[in-house]
Amino acid sequence: MSVGEETETRGRTLQVGSVLPAADYPTSTVQIFRYSAATWNTHRIHYDKDYAVAEGYPDVLVQSHLHGAFLARYCTDWVGANGRLLELGLRIRRFAIAGETLSVLGTVKAVERLDDAHAALALELVETRGSDGETCATASARIEIPLDWLASAAADGMSEGRATT
Amino acid sequence: MAIDEALIEALEAERGVEHVEELGEISAVLIRRYAAAIGETSPLYSDSAYARAQGHADIVAPPNFIAAVINWGPGAPYERLREDGTEADTHLPGVPAKGVRVMGGGEEMTFKRPVIAGTVVTRTTTLADVSERESSQGPMLVVRYSDRYRDAAGESLLETVRTVLLR
Fold it and tell me: Which of A24, A76, A82 would you mutate first to test chain B, the one with the most B CBs within 10 A?
């Protein structure tokens, strides 16, 4: 899909309560090892299965920052070159092991006009693991978008600068 | 050692003290490896020509890259690593190397500027505040650290607040 088509489908549709498309992020032992290498993370819980089992986990664990990378990527993939990620705050709720597919879903919680051409969306993100649907991480994100992605009612309701649920 | 007055005093003494570290140059190789590790497919993070066409001087680091690196140096000799493979110095000023259990409590990141390949980064870490909380396992301390990442010109790149739980 081209950027132009994406803009067309999003044009004037976003408002508080809008749910963004879900995205899946598969993980693997090799990925978790390579993430440890790329971040110079020597914690055995991420590459030594015997150690992870001794600590009470079924397998090596996805790093907290790798959860953060998936959540950030969810935002940057969705907004593309039309906007940018301004803020991301995350909390890890449960562990995820190698081989899990992590699914991220975002919901618009607030909209804010930045200027005549731009708005900011406040998103609530939930990352769940595929094996049992449990939540592994939650996050709040703030993303700058073109003002004309907002539904006209949402844009009209922003004369005070901010509209929330 | 558990949560006691001495630990609280040591942490309170750290409040506001700035620890400045030169992290070095964020090279294109580091960025491309990180992008590959997270499964990133956008050429913004790997293709210099594409990044320039988007208005950047070179490829861009994925947003949380500089906050995700655990150690910017070579790492301690093997005999000084702990049983779990981690280093004694874990970027937590005021927290003793032994006797306290440390758990991550979340991170808030504010992205100020894209981090471009070739940027030389300095990090200033400050213990922002300490508070006590009762948990099911007894008393716990909630410590928040501020990390400010800047380029060589002093421009802010990333600001984070990390929360760690001690018990």
Answer: A76
pLDDT at B1 over 90: no
Cα(B162)–Cα(A83) distance, integer angstroms: 26
Domain, as residue range, for A91: 11-27+63-164
* A94 near B CB under 8 A: no
Least CB–CB distance from A68: residue in B34, B39, B107: B107
Tell me, which fold does domain B5-166 have in CATH? Thiol Ester Dehydrase; Chain A (3.10.129)
Q: Which sequence spans correspond to the domains of chain B? A: 5-166
- Kindly determine whether residue A89 and residue B81, on different chains, have CB atoms separated by under 8 Å: no
- We report the CATH number of the domain holding residue A16 as 3.10.129.10
Chain B residues with CB inside 8 Å of A40's CB? 69-72, 75
Q: A34: phi > 0 → left, psi -120 to 50 → alpha, else beta; which?
A: alpha
A51 found inside a domain: no
Number of Cβ within 10 Å of residue B79's Cβ equals: 5
Q: What is the pLDDT of residue B100?
A: 87
Give me the mean pLDDT over the B124-146 stretch.
Answer: 94
Whole-Å CA distances, B78 to A48, B75, B85, B155: 16, 9, 9, 36
Is B106 close to A40, i.e. CB distance below 8 A? no
Q: What is the pLDDT of residues B30-55, one digit of tens each?
A: 999 999 999 999 999 999 999 999 99
Q: Write out residues 69-88 of A within 8 Å (CB-CB) of B.
A: 69-70, 72-73, 76-77, 81, 84-88
Residue the block writes with tokens 């907002």: A150
